[in-house]
Write a structure and sequence with these properties.
Length: 270
């Protein structure tokens, strides 16, 4: 297997990396760690570089993983950045498929891993954005991977954009409850108004080397992020997994210690 390493913002490096490549699956994104628009703008620029280089390299297909709720006029920066990235792909002329996914979860993920660490280090009460009623549609990472792989073999997916999520619409507070049960923690769920939680998150992101929650998370939970429950089955022929059945990766882990290790690793990388 040949491996090429390049920053997406390095246009020459991207072009060199695509020599002889027929298929590109674009999964990169910094929205889970981005603090400013500059961080997100780098993702947009990188996607443009990748799309233009894919055209020059005569790539047969570019699959781009985006997010549910992506809109060019979104009030939320991360979703607006994804919309700009999608537009660069469509305008480039490269054969493409866009999959707008719900929150992916699984071993090493951003969603359940962050929740498990926070529930382990925040005592007594866990702050919920608003009242925790915002609906999300988490999708197990292996189900998402299967759908992405299927798009590579199906000519009918060329030029299409699919909104894809798991088999259930869950209030965020229920997602937190599922994670609590999986790791054996009990916390009071305390509603916090969105602007206050956003401000607190901004402060903690700057104070700690690697606070697990970023402004993207708070923005994402400001509204429902759902789509048709039947897309996975209808379009991809997949029976998606319910979240409560796919949380074994959280069990038996010392999540408070994982939080400490995360901070040490981030501090050492500075």
């Amino acid at each position: 297997m040949d491996v090429a390493v390049s920053s997406l913002t390095d246009a020459r490096g991207v072009r060199a990396s695509l020599v002889g490549v027929q298929t590109v699956v674009h999964l990169a994104g910094r929205e889970h760690e981005a603090v400013t628009w500059r961080d997100l703008a780098a993702d947009v620029e990188g996607t443009r570089n990748l799309a233009e280089a894919s055209v020059d390299a005569r790539v047969a297909r570019l699959v781009f993983l985006s997010h549910l709720g992506t809109e060019p006029n979104s009030a939320f920066q991360a979703l607006r950045a994804k919309a700009l990235a999608e537009e660069h792909i469509r305008r480039s002329g490269v054969p493409f498929t866009v999959v707008r996914s719900g929150l992916a979860y699984g071993n090493g993920d951003w969603l359940t891993r962050s929740l498990a660490m926070l529930l382990s280090v925040v005592p007594f009460a866990f702050p919920l954005p608003g009242d925790g009623s915002s609906l999300v549609q988490p999708i197990w990472i292996e189900d998402l991977a299967a759908c992405l792989a299927w798009t590579l073999d199906e000519p009918g997916t060329l030029g299409q954009t699919y909104d894809l999520g798991g088999p259930e619409h869950l209030p965020f507070r229920e997602v937190v409850g599922l994670v609590m049960r999986a790791i054996g923690k009990r916390r009071i769920l305390a509603p916090v108004r969105q602007p206050y939680l956003q401000g607190l998150t901004q402060a903690l992101v700057r104070l700690l080397p690697a606070w697990p929650v970023t402004p993207f998370w708070i923005d994402y939970l400001a509204a429902n992020r759902t789509t048709d429950l039947g897309t996975a089955a209808r379009v991809f022929g997949l029976k998606a997994s319910r979240m409560e059945h796919r949380l074994d990766h959280l069990r038996g882990v010392r999540w408070a210690w994982e939080f400490v290790k995360l901070q040490r690793a981030a501090a050492g990388a500075r």
